[in-house]
Structure formats: structure tokens, C-alpha cells
Design brief:
Radius of gyration: 29 Å
Strand content: 15-25%
Distance between the termini: 47 Å
Largest sheet: 8 strands, parallel, barrel
Structural class: alpha/beta
Strand order of the largest sheet: 1-2-3-4-5-6-7-8
Helix content: 25-40%
CATH class of the largest domain: Alpha Beta
CATH architecture of the largest domain: Alpha-Beta Barrel
Number of helices: 17
Shape: elongated
CATH superfamily of the largest domain: Aldolase class I
Number of domains: 3
Length: 544
Amino acid sequence: MNKIPEVQIYDTTLRDGTQAEGVSFSRADKIRITERLDSFGVAYIEGGWPGSNPKDMGFFEAVRGRVFKHAKITAFGSTRRAGNPPAEDHNLRTLLEAETPAVAIFGKAWLLHVHQALRIAAEDNLAMIADSCAFLKQHGREVIFDAEHFFDGYSDNPEYALASLLKAAEGGASTIVLCDTNGGAMPHDVARICEQVKAALPAAVQLGIHCHNDGGCGVANSLMAVLSGATHVHGTINGIGERCGNADLCSIIADLELKLGRPCLPPGSLVHMRELSSFVYELANLHPDTHQPYVGKSAFAHKGGIHVNAIQKDSRTYEHIAPEKVGNTRRILVSDLAGGSNIMAKAAEHSLDIDQKSDEARAILAELKHLEGQGYEYEAADASFFLLMQKMLQKHAPFFTLEGFRVIVEKRGPQAPCLSEATIKITVDGDTELAAAEGDGPVNALDRALRKVLNRFYPEIAKVHLRDFKVRILEGEAGTAAKTRVLIESGDGDSIWGTVGVSENIIEASWQALLDSVEYILFRNAAGVSTSPDGRKPERNPGQ
């Protein structure tokens, strides 16, 4: 029998999330995210504040009349202004014009804001809360009341903070949400206050929680609220939001479902968590947080040899859940901390049959540690490590021979841009080809020239493009003679792979990484392999 969600998830990515620095969603973006959130199974989707800008109202107009499988579209706004009758208040009227089944309005629960921000009497604020909720309820809306700065207000004057909630309930609010608007509350205080509020509210009124992450406790505070009686939880996907962000729904949902046994999604939805996280990062034009709990690329990455050995025997030794439960994958990293188990795991990923106790395995491990001592790093360069293993096993056959290349960087005048040009000559099966190309920089020119010269022999190389290019100086004290490590991420539309090069000459280091990138894809295509070395499908690089 399917479990019925015990906790309602209220997503405010499209409203609170857009207050994050550097985040802006177009109307089309918001519609696409809404469709994904509804498919995922959240109970409410807060689409924006229709009274604040035309774009948000445009969103509500675009989704008007659409039937969603799981979510109620919700419009957000404030209580009426002081002195305005509800029927004449512009904000309340626009909330009705949005024509959403649910509306969320915020009101002041902290006397500091009543006196300093609104500059009205305490009684007037309570009246604004009560009749605003009543007006929206009378027009057939489900009313959610967000008690702004509630925990600060309760600590300052618990009687008044509670009175603001009771007035909202009297006015018709079916859900009362306690907001940690400043994000500074502590989990033990949230638990204590939620228990007291739950006991004071009418039984028919649902208790909710809305946390920010300024103190780093957004997720913890949300979970403590649920354990103390809340059944309605606000947050954003990936925790995006103003200042330090909102409570991260990716962690909250996984913790509720997997740790606390409190269903909050339709059965089978949780496995799409990482996919949803990546989708929102892409539309927000943000780089994913690789160390994000549950959905980050590194959430189930293992580096230490002892850890890898234990994981291979029983994944529970170093994984708190199976990564597949949230749509993630296990990754085995290779570095100077690696042991034989790391080598075996990476070999298995590439279908290479190596005995852990063999001379080949010991030789690969020794070479890995030697190269990492020289500055190479293979954690983000699985393709280079695969080629290293192939060479150590004497299974590598080059697809072409470099006869030479030349890179020219020219600047014609103080105000003129730098011009870069690369010429390269290669030989394939006795046939020599020469090509030249220009680029935005020397590495870009070399990359274009290489792919251009190979195109006649390997047409599939035209699909390959350089996705990301990172440079790190390894020995800063050596100045301009320091060693440089270059990491390159390449893709062909179907998969992505990473390669590495190290040299005192940045062009030589870049060439090593480019060479590995091209040789890896040529080998993969020749062998009919269709996945990236780390199992990833391509995600657009927001920086491109």
C-alpha cells in the first residue's frame, strides 16, 4: 500500500530563490521549473509576488487554467497596508487576480517591525492580519499565513507573537508558518517554540516552518520543527535564496524520507532528486555545489584506499545511504592517497581485468603516486588515468603521431587585442597532414588546429568541444618558471570526460591534456563505449 505524504513540501524556489544574488528566472524558466517540481511531487509551488512586478503576474497568467498533478500553484504577497480596507488594497486585489487556488501572505509577528518598519500600533497590525486573511478566505482561496521574523518576535514578546498567529487563524488561515526570516535561530529553540505554538493553535490549523540559512542551521531547524509538530515545510531546491540562502529542500526531503520515515513525496519520486537539482542549477546559471549533501557530485566519492577497500566489501561502511536512492552515483577517486582497491575499482569501471596482487597493479599504483608527486591530479581526470592504465598494461596504440606544432601570440599595438594562431602537423598511418587555426587564446587556437587536422582521418572529432579549462600554478615560489597543472573537460554531446597535463610550460601542459582528451574519445568510439569515465552525462557549463 502506498504511503500518503505526511509532510507537505512548499517550494519557493521561484520566489524566494530568485532573491539570491545573481539568480534570475525568465517566465519560460519558471514554467519549466514548475513542471519539474509538479512531476517531482511537491505539494505547493510559490510562483512569485504578482503585486511586485509584471513578470510574476505574467507567470500566473501563463499557468492559469493548467491542471497540475501534485502541486497547488501559490501566489505570495503581504497583508493589506495600514488604513486600506481589504477590498481596496492593491496587493490583496492582485493576489486574487492571480487566480491561484492558494495564497500566502506574510505579516509582522515581531513588535520591533510593527513599531519601527510599519510605524503603527500593535493592535492595528493584528487587525491587518485578521481581515487580510478573512478577505482572501471569503474569495475562495486557501490561505497560508507566513509569520515573518516569528522566532525573533517570540523571543522578544511571546504573547504578541502568538496573538498574531491566532488572529490569522481567526481570519481563516488554514496553515500558519513560523518564519526564521533572519536565519539566526538555533535548532533547540526552534523545537521548543514549535511545541509551544502547536499546543496553542486550534487543532484544525496546520503548523509550518520557513527557515533561512544565515546561521548554517536552515535544514536542521526545519527538521526540528517537523519533529515538534510541523507538517508543512518551506524551502528551495539547492537552498538558493537571499544572503546565505533558504533551507535546502534536497537535504530536507531526503532526511524526512530516508532518516525520519516521514513521507513527503509520491512513491518513487526521490530517485529523481539529483536530476531536479542539476536542472535548477542549470536554469539558474549557477555552478553546482559538488559537496552538496545527497545530490553533489562528491557526495558519494571515495578517495582513501582504506575507504575504497571497505566500500567494495560493504557500501554501508562509508555510505550513510545507497546513492541510487537519490539518483546519485558512487565515484572512486584516484590520487596519491590511493591503494590497490582504488586501482581495481577504476580498472573495473573501464572493463580492464587486473589482479590486485599482480605486478601490473603494483606498477600502476607506483606510477600514479610518482606522477601525483610531480603535480598530476587524476581526481577530475579519469580519462587521463584510463590512458595511463592502458599504457602501463602495454595496451595503448596511438591513433596519430605528432610531428610538431607552433603557437604564435601577436599583439599589434598597445590597444589592439592579442591574436593567437596555431599550426600543427600529424601523421596517421604514414599519411601526414598540416593545418592551422586561430583562436581566442593560444590553447584555444591549438585545440582548434588539432581537431581541424584530425578531421580528415577521424570525422567524429568534429563533435568534440572543450567545455572547461582550468590552470593552477603548483610552485608559486618559482615565479614564472613554476610548474603548471592544466585540467581540461571535454564533451561530444553524449558524454563528458576530464584530462590533465603538467609542465613548466603552460602550452606543453595544455597539449598533454588536449592529447589525452582526443585519444580517449577516439579509443572510446573505436571500442563502442558510450559512457563517460565517471558515468556522467553532460551538464551545460554555465560559464560557457
